Amino acid sequence: INGLPPIAKSEFYTRFGVESKRKKITSEVVSEVKNLLNSGKTLKEASDVAGVSIASCQKIKKGDYDS
To answer: Do residues 65 and 30 lie in contact, with contact meaning Cβ atoms separated by under 8 Å?
Structure first.
């Protein structure tokens, strides 16, 4: 995949069903992840349910997205 132009990469990804893990962090996502973490879920489980990356879950847990 390295060396392919971006358009070819996107066609490759869509052809084989590879989806991006990037998602906009909204207040709903923040509250969902916090509830999952407070109920005893791990970062990996919370990220899978909420559809965000583990790093984003870590930031939410740390409080970076608190307004």
So the answer is: yes
